[in-house]
């Protein structure tokens, strides 16, 4: 009986020690991973055969790995570097080799590579791969069209792919109108707001949702400030020199804070932008 | 009369298999994976139906593989290892009937296990669908069950292979080794053959001997990847009934060939 009690005491102490060491190991591991960044993924020539008939679940696992990696970066407000863009592109390229219909993966890559890295080339490469497999999905040409239009300022290709999307089943009715009136929207934030709103509506992941909401909020502010800049011109005959002129003339109460920690500025071409470039400062 | 004998042996094998404790472990593991799928899907963005189907179909397949590699091999080799085969063969059974009866019993066990796991999977999917109805627009029950059926066909073939290897080897470990190797080769042979047809392979200038060997081997080895419809099912891509009929015939014909060969070898085998 006494021996058993001693054993139980030892067990409790050992469990406490185990918890303590594990917690400490977690911190050490975090430092270790930060210092030893391994941004490589096994090519699909290897992952394909070794996943045997479990390529679907392996692609889910790889996707979870990429989204957890990004989620951690977002939560800790860490700056994303160019090497991360390559890691994301490679990972998504490989996991879509395993499951070429995996839309979540294509969409995650598109959202991050375009907005955070401005690597439209990489995002479009993956989207064109999606287009080969998801032949009846309007979302694929819709996103390609948006990238051409918004990021590459290529209205001709933007309209071409938006029209392609409009012809596919379940495409929203506004798509064809958007495609034909594309030139009107040039240099405006409205389509980006519309586009991000669409993604937000269908997103389930809370981390990505938070990220999109911040981006959307910033775009809303820039859009409303730009409208006031045009209102300024209408009233006073010329564009303001600085955003603070809008406050001086009573068009806005104050210039809102940038959710990313930067500052809103009026560019020489009279467009409103932010010094944070929508990346956390 | 012959059918009655086969059935008696099949039921005996089935009952023996059901008593195996490994079966509970495999069942528990699969159930754990299926319930886990309900929790895991919340970490994904939109295609929750894809992830749910992926996990559930993988759990069913994995359970079937464990069952085939451990329980089936054990059922085949136990009689010889423990010398209980003499008491079976002393009854009015031919050796061929023994082989076919064993195979039928193993398949009965696999069908029961897969049936039960499919019911559990269906409940897990239904529950996840009920929770995230919006994210299940691209889901199809028919395609899900088609993928389960295709997996079952794969197990028909794999277990015929196990029975075949059991008749030519003297140790269950060698049977396990042969079966796992053939399974891996069967899952990848198609990829190798397809690669050989690409331009990249042509540039590599492989020797004629190697290409001839692969050409021959592709007809000898079972092409098990044709039964993998999990990805298509996860995206609710329609699989034609013609395709299902084709893989059914392939699985049936290949299994029959293996079982006839196993019977012939077992008839001549000297049991010590």
How many strand units of chain A? 2
Biggest interface:
A-B, 25 and 32 residues
Instruction: Count helical runs of chain A.
Output: 13
Proportion of strand residues of chain A: under 5%
Structural class of chain B: mainly alpha
Number of domains of chain B: 1
Specify the oligomeric state: heterodimer
Q: What is the chain-wise order of helices and strands of chain B?
A: HHHHHHHHHHH
Show unreliable segments of chain A.
none
- The secondary-structure class of chain A comes to mainly alpha
Taking the sheet with the most strands of chain A, its summary is: 2 strands, antiparallel
Helix content of chain A: 55-70%
Give the overall shape of chain B.
Answer: globular
Structure description:
- The complex is a heterodimer of chains A (281) and B (272).
- Chain A has 13 helices and two strands, in the order αααααααααααααββ.
- Chain A is an all-alpha fold.
- Chain A has a domain at 50-134.
- The termini of chain A are far apart.
- Chain B has one domain (2-268).
- The relative contact order of chain B is 0.14.
- Chain B is mostly helical.
- The model of chain B has no long low-confidence stretch (mean pLDDT 87).
- Chain B has helices at residues 2-18, 22-40, 48-81, 85-89, 95-131, 141-168, 172-196, 199-204, 208-220, 230-234, 241-268.
- At the A-B interface, helix 3 and helix 5 of A face helix 3, helix 7 and helix 10 of B.
Summary of the model, kept short:
The complex is a heterodimer of chains A (281) and B (272). Chain A is mainly alpha-helical and 281 residues long. Chain A contains 13 helices and two strands, in the order H-H-H-H-H-H-H-H-H-H-H-H-H-E-E.
Could you name the key traits of this structure?
heterodimer; A: 281 residues; mainly alpha; 13 helices; B: 272 residues; 11 helices; 80% helix
């Amino acid at each position: 009986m006494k021996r058993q009690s001693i054993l139980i005491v030892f067990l409790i102490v050992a469990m406490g020690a185990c918890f303590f060491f594990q917690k400490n190991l977690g911190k050490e591991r975090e430092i270790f991973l930060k210092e030893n960044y391994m941004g490589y993924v096994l090519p699909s020539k290897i992952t394909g055969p070794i996943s045997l008939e479990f390529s679907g679940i392996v692609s889910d696992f790889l996707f979870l790995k990429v989204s957890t990696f990004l989620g951690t970066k977002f939560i800790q407000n860490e700056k994303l570097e160019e090497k991360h863009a390559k890691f994301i592109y490679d990972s998504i390229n490989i996991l879509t080799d395993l499951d070429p219909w995996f839309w979540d993966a294509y969409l995650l890559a598109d959202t991050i590579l375009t907005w955070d890295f401005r690597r439209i080339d990489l995002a479009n490469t993956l989207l064109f791969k999606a287009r080969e497999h998801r032949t009846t999905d309007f979302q694929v040409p819709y996103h390609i069209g948006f990238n051409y239009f918004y990021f590459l300022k290529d209205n001709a290709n933007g309209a071409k792919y938006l029209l392609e999307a409009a012809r596919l089943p379940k495409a929203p009715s506004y798509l064809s109108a958007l495609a034909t009136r594309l030139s009107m929207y040039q240099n405006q934030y409205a389509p980006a707001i519309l586009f991000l709103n669409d993604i937000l509506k269908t997103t389930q992941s809370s981390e990505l949702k938070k990220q999109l909401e911040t981006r959307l909020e910033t775009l809303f502010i820039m859009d409303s400030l730009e409208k006031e800049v045009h209102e300024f011109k209408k009233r006073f005959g010329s564009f303001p020199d600085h955003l603070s002129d809008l406050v001086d003339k009573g068009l806005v109460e104050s210039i809102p804070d940038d959710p990313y920690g930067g500052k809103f500025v009026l560019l020489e071409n009279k467009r409103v932008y932010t010094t944070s470039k929508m990346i956390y400062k | 009369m012959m059918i009655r004998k086969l059935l008696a042996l099949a039921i005996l094998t089935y009952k023996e298999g059901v008593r195996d404790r490994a079966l509970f472990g495999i069942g528990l593991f699969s159930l754990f994976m299926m319930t886990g799928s309900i929790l895991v899907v919340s970490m994904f963005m939109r295609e929750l139906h894809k992830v749910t189907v992926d996990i559930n179909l993988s759990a069913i397949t994995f359970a079937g593989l464990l069952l085939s590699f451990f329980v089936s091999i054990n059922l085949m080799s136990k009689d010889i290892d423990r010398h209980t085969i003499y008491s079976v063969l002393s009854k009015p059974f031919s050796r061929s009937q023994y082989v076919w009866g064993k195979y039928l019993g193993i398949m009965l066990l696999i069908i029961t296990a897969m049936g039960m796991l499919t019911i559990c999977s269906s409940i897990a999917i239904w529950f996840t669908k009920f929770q995230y109805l919006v994210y299940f627009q691209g889901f199809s029950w028919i395609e899900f069950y088609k993928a389960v059926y295709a997996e079952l066909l794969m197990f028909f073939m794999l277990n015929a292979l196990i029975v075949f290897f059991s008749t030519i080897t003297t140790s269950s470990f060698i049977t396990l080794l042969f079966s796992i190797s053939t399974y891996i080769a069967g899952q990848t042979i198609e990829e190798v053959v397809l690669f050989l047809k690409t331009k990249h392979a042509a540039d590599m200038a492989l020797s004629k001997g190697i290409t001839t060997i692969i050409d021959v081997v592709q007809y000898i080895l079972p092409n098990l990847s044709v039964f993998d419809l999990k990805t298509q099912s996860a995206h609710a891509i329609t699989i034609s009934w013609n395709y299902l009929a084709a893989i059914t015939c392939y699985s049936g014909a290949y299994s029959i060939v293996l079982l006839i060969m196993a019977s012939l070898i077992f008839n001549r085998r000297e049991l010590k």
